[in-house]
Each structure stands twice: as structure tokens, then as C-alpha cells.
């Protein structure tokens, strides 16, 4: 049986915001940390990770997502943080305004897919991963850059689409393909 690795997300499509996030990535690289940077075209927040699911279930997910109703979500991407405690593993850009709306949208997606037996593996936290940390020769240098971007405003975005994406893992990084999209109700 064919399986498909996929997830449901909203995407940062604003080019100016992507560019500001890319500049933050450059500052991170300047710390000497060994990082796997996220391609700016792939800046997104995952509403629900589905994992490897049977291809036949992908069709049922598409049908279910057609019933999702949401209005465009205005979000202000601001500030940065890490996951992983004292030794950061993931570096992200945060969401100030719009976080509650994204949480409601994620909950709506989870509730819609629950009858299909799909459950979240963790609680949704609105964030946009920009780098995965492989090694940090100087934690102080990394912390200084993170501190300098703590309240940085990357810009405002409007999410008008929810995407069902296929994720193919390759040695060069993931390749994302849109399988389905739901448009916001204007």
C-alpha cells in the first residue's frame, strides 16, 4: 500500500517578509553555528502533521478539508525563539497578532479530521521554523543574535489559504508539493 508523508499548513507568501526572515538567517549563520536553514519559499507553520498515511486516506483528507471555513487571518510575525532548552535544536520566528486565530484554525482542522482517526502528535504552537541547529561552537554568539532579534518585526502577512502538502525528504532537504488547498471565505 502506497503511503504519503504529508501535513496541513499556512504559508508565508509575502516576499518582503520572507526576505527579512532570510536576513535573520544570515545573522544566524554569522554566529558560526552549524545550521540547516529552511528555504525561504518554505516558511510555514504546520497546523497538523499527518505523517505517513495511506494514499487512499489522502483523498478522504482532501474531501474533509473542503468543509473547513475560515476568514483571512492577519498575523504579525515578530520576535524569535528556540525549542530545545539550553541547547537549541530549532530556531523560529514568532507570531504576535493572529496567533489566537491560527490556534482556532488548527483546532478546526484537528476536529474535522478526528473522525478519520487522525490525531495531533503535539499541541499546536504558532511559529515559523527558520533553522535546525546541528552544532553550536559559540552559544554566546548565538544567544546575542537571538537577543538582538527578540522584538524584531518581520512584518504582517495575511493567510488566505490552508494547504495540504506532501513532504518528500531528500538529502538536500524536503520537497513540498501542494496536494490540495482551501481558500478563506472573504
Descriptive notes:
The strands form two sheets. This protein has a five-stranded antiparallel β-sheet with strand order 2-6-5-4-7. The longest helix has 15 residues, at 15-29. The chain contains four helices and nine strands. Strand 8 (161-168) and strand 9 form a beta hairpin. It has helices at residues 15-29, 55-65, 99-113, 139-148, and strands at 3-11, 34-37, 44-54, 73-83, 90-95, 127-135, 153-159, 161-168, 175-183. It has one domain (3-183): Cyclic Phosphodiesterase, Chain: A, CATH 3.90.1140. The relative contact order is 0.27. It is of the alpha+beta class and 186 residues long.
CATH architecture label name: Alpha-Beta Complex
What is the CATH fold-level name? Cyclic Phosphodiesterase, Chain: A
How many alpha or pi helices?
4
Instruction: Characterize the main sheet.
Output: 5 strands, antiparallel
Q: Level of helix content?
A: 25-40%
Class by alpha and beta content = alpha+beta
- Main sheet: strand order: 2-6-5-4-7
Taken in chain order, the helices and strands follow as EHEEHEEHEHEEE
Which of globular, elongated, flat, extended, rod-shaped describes the shape?
Answer: globular
- Number of discrete domains: 1
Give the CA-CA distance, first to last residue.
39 Å
What's the level 1 CATH class?
Alpha Beta
Radius of gyration: 17 Å
Taking pLDDT < 50 over at least 5 consecutive residues as the criterion, the unreliable ranges are none
Number of strands: 9
How much strand? 35-45%
The CATH superfamily turns out to be: Cyclic phosphodiesterase
Mean pLDDT: 95
